[in-house]
Amino acid sequence: MYLTNPSLCASIVMEAMKTMAKKLSFEERQAIFADADKARDYLESVRWPDGVICPHCGAEDAHKLAGESTRKGLYKCRACRRQFTVTVGTIFQGTHIPLNKWMYAIYLMCESKKGISSNQLSRDVGVTYKSAWFMTHRIRQAMSNGGTMKFDGIVEADETYIGGRTKGGKRGRGAEKKTPVFALIQRNGEARSFHVGNVKKKTLQGLIGENVKETAHIMTDSFRSYCGLDKIFAGHDFVDHSKEYVRGIVHTNFAESYFSLLKRGILGTFHHVSREHLQRYLYEFDFRWNRRDDETGENLNAVLTQAVGQRLLYRDSARCLA
Q1: Domain residues for 303?
Q2: DSSP 8-state assignment for residue 318
């Protein structure tokens, strides 16, 4: 099966990456958002830029089935004899929602700087709230497939806490009923954030080691969980926020900016995010940060490309704690 074949998935994704720079005009976007057949044709052009590839066996020998009783966009592979459409092995597989509505939903999520709520998406796209909620989580799952290369150069590491204020309670580290989020920001580069169970040294430094090269220079605050990083990486500098916020190039301002956007989105748009689903929201904000200089049409293509190999079933939608 395609979904259990990582090498096949990777090759198809790399082929689709060739269309990432394609820009859509306003008229082209409107046509795709208005017509399910045009949306399917566009998805085929993104997923199969050099011709149809069977998602089951990887063969490039498939023919399109025709006939009054045949559903649109159906292909049959001459190698494995199996039928498929462009949605097989993607976040769209098994959906009953027209692809043009999916395209419009992706566009709205990419275009909104602080995100869009499921209630608003339900009204804009014309689907039920339950459908809109599941669509947004599938789209966020596709946004998670952006890259796995380790960070290098100057990398900022910081943590924050997500959740409502407790009246009279402690804020920040050690606050009750709040969820810790850890982020790595490559200076003038990409972000990668994690929903973590705690902010202990083993947890945070384990994530840094998994995602950052040893040649990197780490920037943090004076939190004790970061002690000892200078023995692992090329350099480690920190700022003591009780005394200063910046000392030359030593600061965590990019991480603070990322957390500011994240919190404004959660508090202002979503109002409340459960712990079970928080990681997928982080995928969304990582994606938006990492592609902040791209146009919305390019972001649409990026999500469609990364949708390959991603499948989120409703029964699995709550299993998201990192």
Answers
A1: 2-143+296-316
A2: T
